[in-house]
Amino acid sequence: MRCRKVRSFLSTYSKEEVSAGLAAKIERHLNDCIACRRELEMVRSVQAMVKGMAPRKTSDDFTARVLSRVAQERFAETKSKAYLPGRIPLLGGARLAMVSTAAVVVLALGITFNTGNMFVSPSMPQATLTSPAPGATGADDRYLTAQPTDNPLLNEHKSVSRMIAQYNRWREYSKSLRSHAAAEQFAGSGTATMAAAQSGGATTEYRVRPIVRNYLVVPVDQNRNQRRNTY
Question: Domain spans of the chain?
């Protein structure tokens, strides 16, 4: 097994939640890889730190608000980044291990110490949740219909039809510029074709005959006194 695959199982491996065959493969890899053993120690230390923290009671609508935040962010990302997606960052080796460990630590500390508004950011559009019916029981699925109430990304009116219309306007404008430039060049050549066409008169055609010049060059070593003849 490679390091990336082994590290994806370290959390479940430390909790003894993997099968016996997979655990044996992970152990064989850990015996030969110092970096993965170090990563396993970090995962176990984070898990021990989380277990040692006192439990904290969350609000009743905590799960619904988290899922609603995920829904509205996905909605905003779909509307804003569907046309020009950004480049996916490449992470590997030690950098990937550091990022994954830091993410686990931040998530654990955030869930433990932050208040109920930990997932609310003033710079992001907020979602609207309808209040559950009185006496309603069962799972809270209000996040399925969550929509952002104030999304600045949607105010830009980015849509396929708008982009196509803008492209067509630029294309027509470019065509008009080219035709205008061609008309000015044609009018400045000294012909009266445009004026005759506008006044309803006959159109005059001009034909241009190319000028061909032949040059005869005599080698100097044959006749030094003979000059070049131009026809």
Answer: 160-199+206-230
